[in-house]
Design a protein that fits this description.
This protein is an alpha+beta fold. The protein has eight helices and seven strands; from the N terminus they run H-H-H-E-E-E-E-H-E-E-H-E-H-H-H. The protein has a seven-stranded antiparallel sheet. The N and C termini lie far apart (47 Å).
Length: 207
């Protein structure tokens, strides 16, 4: 890549853009007021961004019935951790480096809500009991102490047409998850066995 075209200083970056729009300059808030709380209560899906002690970044999806992320007070969120593949990338990152950001999505709504702050992992039984689904409590939860929150306009979702039914991609255009994983890892595991394990996990380990 031509070195002359690499943008590597704040000054060079700022020179490419105009001033911040007036509302964008003031939209960040430091607490969860009525609109933020309502947005979170309707959201069934979030993406958590985190990084380890070396700064290696990661993002991870979390999903559950709407309102699964609990607002404990004006500056604290609780996110249940459901059964997964036990890589615990996000949780390990939080233990090493508590800085995280979360973005909330609501199906059919093109705006999103971003929340940033410092997280910690808790096994508080009283908190976890209130996050049960089907009688099963999560093993732990992520507590997020909010430093900043703000709404994003709809441009990204409008450009992507994410919620437009005409943009829906039929699952058959991609191979199965098992097939892709085996191809990516060059594993010699049996495809039928892998796919059976995936389906069993969906049936028995959602909660």
């Amino acid at each position: 890549m031509d070195r002359d075209h690499v943008v590597d200083t704040p000054e060079r970056l700022s020179a490419l853009f105009g001033p911040v729009t007036p509302l964008a300059a003031i939209k960040s808030i430091q607490r969860l007021e009525a609109h933020s709380r309502r947005f979170i209560s309707l959201s069934p899906f979030v993406v958590i961004a985190s990084a380890d002690a070396r700064g290696h970044a990661d993002c991870s999806p979390r999903g559950d019935p709407p309102g699964f992320v609990r607002v404990l007070d004006d500056t604290t969120l609780a996110i249940p951790d459901r059964p997964g593949n036990n890589r615990i990338d996000t949780l390990r990152n939080i233990v090493e480096n508590p800085e995280v950001a979360v973005i909330f999505f609501i199906p059919g709504v093109e705006e999103t809500l971003r929340v940033e702050g410092r997280a910690r992992v808790t096994t508080d039984p009283a908190l976890l009991a209130g996050m049960e689904v089907g009688g099963k409590a999560p093993t732990l939860a992520i507590l997020l102490a909010i430093r900043e929150a703000h709404l994003h306009c709809a441009k990204a979702l409008k450009r992507s047409r994410l919620w437009d039914p005409a943009s829906r991609v039929e699952r058959g255009v991609l191979p199965s998850l098992g097939r892709m994983l085996l191809d990516q890892t060059r594993s010699t595991m049996d495809l039928a066995t892998v796919e059976a394990r995936i389906e069993q996990s969906y049936r028995e380990r959602m909660y």
